[in-house]
UniProtKB/TrEMBL annotation:
Organism the protein comes from: Cellulomonas fulva
Residues that, per the record, bind S-adenosyl-L-methionine: G54, G55, H56, D73, Y100, D121, Q128
Subcellular localization(s) per the UniProt record: Cytoplasm
Role summary: Specifically methylates the N4 position of cytidine in position 1402 (C1402) of 16S rRNA.
Pfam families attached to this UniProt entry: Methyltransf_5 (PF01795)
Protein name (record): Ribosomal RNA small subunit methyltransferase H
Residues in coiled coil: 224-251
Reaction equation(s) it catalyzes: cytidine(1402) in 16S rRNA + S-adenosyl-L-methionine = N(4)-methylcytidine(1402) in 16S rRNA + S-adenosyl-L-homocysteine + H(+)
Amino acid sequence: MTERDASQVPEGAPAAPGAADRHVPVLLDRCLELLAPALSADGAVMVDCTLGMGGHTEAVLRRFPAVRVIGLDRDTQALELAGERLAPFGDRFTGVHAVYDEIRDVLAELGVPAAQGVLMDLGVSSLQLDEVERGFSYAKDAPLDMRMDTTSGPTAADVLATYDERELARVLRTYGEERFAPRIARAIVRERATSPLSRTGELVDLVRRSIPAAARQTGGHPAKRTFQALRIEVNRELEALENALPEAIEALAVGGRIVVEAYQSLEDRMVKQAFAQGASVSAPPDLPVVPETHQPYLRLVTRGAEEADAAELARNPRSQSVRLRAAERLRPTPDHLRTTRRAA
């Protein structure tokens, strides 16, 4: 974890150009509305678990003048751009190089006992999609990288070169929900026997050849699901999210709120389950009186998952698949339901 404090610049100074022009935050007004009751508390702290280029954080800092935001991101380039954008807010913003499942470790290092707000905007960021050389997009040829943190870890090319056929099929089927996963995996293994796959364009061509012509006519770009699956595998996204959800809930003060935006079904299902566990009575159904330790510790603030309306879609096409959920902490988590990776 590396802390990056925003420069001390007068709050009235204009925001640095660049990040603001490259990113339109999804469901921004709704996120602010859901967080508002918690962020009105004196000395409120919000953790933006997926800082990106800082769009949500900038809006929070402007809307709530007394709030401090701690922004986490594993992408050093995003931290750099967001730091420039948020420099006018001085020490009200602190950027930290970390994965979001480290949220409580970050708060402890910064001497913050709990957060009043937590925001997660999951998936790949606009920066990562738009930077062609990062290899996240199937639309343009680039090196097969796909790492959110370019300072460490295997690339997508490494995954394609080292996983066996069965493991490749599992990744494509599980994380991309690709029904032609076995055919694509078989083609990857066959192709790499003569020449390793190193470019996104090569992978796109291989996937297109592996999928029947009739199936290529529907469901969007034929390589979309393969690229999603590889990105999730390379960055261990679902593993990090599985750890991060209970950590983020434990980081919340009583009365605090957590807002999560998910963009694919696997992520949204995990968020739904974590919130549902906290919002449910954990006692056996036949007990005449529910003990305090088995009462819900979360309250669902949204009814199911909210989606983007027509106006949001027109303003920001990347909101098409968003599913937003929010919850409020009612009381501490009972000991028997704690599932976090570190001791409280």
